[in-house]
Amino acid sequence: MDPINYWNTTIHQDIPATKLLGITIQSLSEQAIQVTAPLEQNINGHQTAFAGSIYTLGITSGWTLISAFLKSNNIKASVVAGQADISYKRPIAGDLIANCQFDNQSPLINWQQSWSLNKSAKQPLIIEVSHDAIVSAKITATFYIKKIS
Fold this sequence. Notes:
It is a single chain. This protein is 32% helix and 36% strand. It is of the alpha+beta class. The radius of gyration is 15 Å and the shape is globular. The longest helix is centred in the middle third of the chain and has 22 residues, at 51-72. The two termini are 26 Å apart. The model has no long low-confidence stretch (mean pLDDT 96).
């Protein structure tokens, strides 16, 4: 199974809300991810994207990027979002697109330092949610990665 199909299946099984919201991974590399969701499954009473759906899309993007990186490097770990702030800049009146990437080439060096001290590693990420190439929401999140022996 190719990585995109694998991760779409995984998020839909492990995070059932992602299937209900129509969240789908469109592209994935070791450094970046793009995840989408249709407006029709995420619409509010104002005919724009529901804030909770925007947040769920963003956090799912970050979690999947980190989890996929770990899997591709044969590292067993547990990933959780420990803290996140979202800024809604404008309503989204169409399909949602989330983009997220690692700031540095390989976050592994920083993670290994924490793991060598038997601590969970921290990974900050900025996730942008847009429509028609206009960023409409920005999530600043910190994920915690606990290595499993």
